[in-house]
Amino acid sequence: METKTIVLNDIDYVSRDNKPIVRLFGVDSETNENIIAFDTTFKPYLYVLPRNMDECLVELRELDLDDLEIEIKIDIGIEREFIKITLNHPQDVPKYRDDIRDLPSVKQIREYDIPFYRRYLIDKQITPTNIIKLQGKTLDANIYREELKVDDNVILFKLLEDPYDTHEVINENKLLSFDIEVYNAEGMPDAEKDPIIMMSLCGSNGFKKVLSTKKSNRDFVETLPTEEDMIKRFGEIIKEENPDMLVGYNSDNFDLPYIKKRADKLKINLNLGIDGSGIKFMKRGFANAGVIRGRIHVDLYLLVRRNMSLDRYTLERVYEELFDQEKIDVPGNQIYKYWDSNDEKLEELFDYSMDDAVTTTAIGDKLTPLAIAQARLVGQPLFDIARMTTGQMVEWYLILKAYEKNNIIPNKPSGNEYSQRRNKGVMGGYVKDPEKGLFEHIAYLDFKSLYPSIIIAQNISPDTIIEDVSGFNESEYYVSPEDGFKFRKEPKGFIPSIIGYILDERQRIKKLMKEETVPEQKRAYDFEQQGLKRLANSMFGAYGYSRFRWYKIECAAAITAWGREYIKSAMKKSEEYGFKPIYADTDGFYATYLGDLDE
C-alpha cells in the first residue's frame, strides 16, 4: 500500500456505473504534483425519527430500503432512537425523501439536505487546506487519461483506507490573479460580438504577463496572432503556473462568464480544471459561482463586501483603502479608444491591464488568509467559504460539531415556518444617545465578548430552555430579565459548550501568537484567532436568523435583555466612582470623570 500526503484544495463526486465516487483534489505536499484521489466506498444516508420503531422498519423495507440501522442520537438535548437509512447514490435521497416522509410511521426525516461532498468531509473529519494523509494505490493514468482529459502530470490515486487529517497546514499558498479587458465601443460589452483584447495574470511568486493581439514595448506583454490563440495561451499559463488559488475581482459575474462565452463562441476547449473539465457555474445564494475543478477560484469582490465597509467597492477604491496608494486607472467607457489609438494611450492600457492583475494579487494576499483560516475552522472548502455569509459559516461549524458530539442536526425551516419566524423581532442592545457638549477626562469601558459570555454564563441554548418549570427548583435555572425566559444551569447546552470551546481556543492561539517569533507563523495564528472571534460573535445573531437550523427567538431575546441589564448596571456603578456616562452602545460606554484627578 502506498502513502501520499496532499494539501486538500477541492472535493466533489462523480458517478460511474450508478455509484458515487468522491474525488479529493490536492497537491502533493512534497513534490507539488497534482493528485486526484478517489474514494468509492462512501454512501449517502439520512435519518428517520419514527412514531413506532417496529412499524417504521416494516414500512421502510416495503420501499425496498434494507440498509437500516438503529442509532441513539441527541435531539436538542434529548436522546432519541433514529433509523439511519443508507442509500446507494446521492440522487436516491430526493428520490426516496418524500416517500419516506409520507409513511404513517414516520414522524420526521433528518439530515437529508447535507450535500454529499460536505457530508464526506464531516464524517471523515478532514479539513480543506490541511495536509491530508492518503493510503491506497496509484492508478494507471493512461486508462483514464483520454476519458478524463487530465494532464500528464496528474496522479490518479485510489483510496483503500479513510483519509487522515494531520492538522498540519502550509502557511504560504501559490496565488495567481487574472483580469480581462474587452472591446466596448457600444457601451456594455456583449460576449457574442465584443472580443477580449487583453488578459492579464500576476502570481504571488512574481509572475507577470499581459496577453494581447497587439504589440507593445512593455516586457510583460506577450503578443498572440488571434484572440483564439490568446485564450488558449491563457489556459496554458494557468496549467504551467499550477496555482493553489485563482483569484479575480468580480470574476464570478464578469471575467469567468465572459471568458467562457468567448471560448465557446470560438470553439475553444478551455479545459482549465485538473480533471480536464472546463469552466462551470453553480448556484451560490442569488448568484452563480465560477468553478474550475481542482483549482480554488476566489472572487475577491465577495470577500471585500463581507469584510470591509466602503462608500464604493471598485478595485481602485479597495486598493486605496488597504494600501493607501492609488492604482493606475482608465475610464471603463474609454478602453476601446485607448485600444484603437495605437499610440502611447495603448501603452497606458497595457499598464492599466497589468496593474489590475498586480493589485488583485496584492488584495488577495491580504484577504485570502482569513478566508483560509475560516475554511479550516468550519471544515468546508475554501471555494464555498469565500461565498458564505458569516451566519452560514456559523451553521456549518455547528453542523461539524454536532456530528462530533452525536447531535442530530435540526432541519431547515419549511416555507410556512420561515414566514412565521420573519414576523418576529428582538429588541437590540442598549443605546444611550450622546450628550451634547465637549467633555474631558473621558474613559471608555466595554465588556469583553459580551454576547458570547452571556450565552456561556447563562447557558442559553435551544436545548436548555425550560417551557414548563414544574419539577424544577428555582436554583436549577437562570431567569432572563424582562421576558423571564428560563434556562437550565446543567447540563451545559450544545451551543454554549461550543462557544466556550471557541473562546478558550482563541485565548490559546493568542498566547501562541504572542510567543511565536517566526513572522509567517505569527501571521497565521493571527488569522486563526480572528476567525474564531468572528464565529463567536456571530452566534448570537444566528439564534434570531429566520433560516437558522438552531433558531430560537427566545434565546436571542434573552441574550440582549441580559446585555441591556449588564451595561445599565455598569453605568450606574460607574457613577458611584465619580463618573458620568455620556454615551453607550450595546457592549460599552463612554464616561467623563467628575472628580478631582489629583485625589
Describe the structure.
Helices cover 39% and strands 25% of the residues. With 599 residues, it is α+β, with helices and mostly antiparallel strands. The protein folds into 4 domains: 2-42 and 130-168, OB fold (Dihydrolipoamide Acetyltransferase, E2P), CATH 2.40.50; 45-119, DNA Polymerase, chain B, domain 1 (DNA Polymerase, Chain A, domain 1, 2-Layer Sandwich), CATH 3.30.342.10; 175-378, 2-Layer Sandwich (Nucleotidyltransferase, domain 5), CATH 3.30.420.10; 412-590, B family DNA polymerase, palm domain (Palm domain of DNA polymerase, Alpha-Beta Complex). The longest helix has 35 residues, at 344-378.
Key features of this structure:
OB fold (Dihydrolipoamide Acetyltransferase, E2P); DNA Polymerase, Chain A, domain 1; Nucleotidyltransferase, domain 5
Layout: helices, strands, pairs:
Elements: E1 2-16, E2 19-28, E3 34-39, E4 45-50, H1 53-62, E5 68-75, E6 78-86, H2 92-101, E7 106-110, H3 116-124, E8 130-138, H4 141-148, E9 154-159, E10 164-169, E11 175-182, E12 196-203, E13 208-212, E14 221-223, H5 227-241, E15 245-248, H6 251-265, E16 280-284, E17 287-291, E18 296-299, H7 300-307, H8 315-323, H9 335-341, H10 344-378, H11 382-385, H12 390-404, H13 415-422, E19 431-432, E20 442-446, H14 450-457, E21 477-479, E22 486-488, H15 494-515, H16 519-543, H17 553-576, E23 579-585, E24 588-593
Parallel strand pairs: 3-9, 11-15, 13-14, 15-18
Antiparallel strand pairs: 1-2, 1-8, 2-3, 4-6, 4-7, 5-6, 8-9, 8-10, 11-12, 12-13, 16-17, 19-23, 20-24, 21-22, 23-24
Helix pairs in contact: 8-10, 9-10, 10-16, 12-16, 14-15, 14-17, 15-16, 16-17
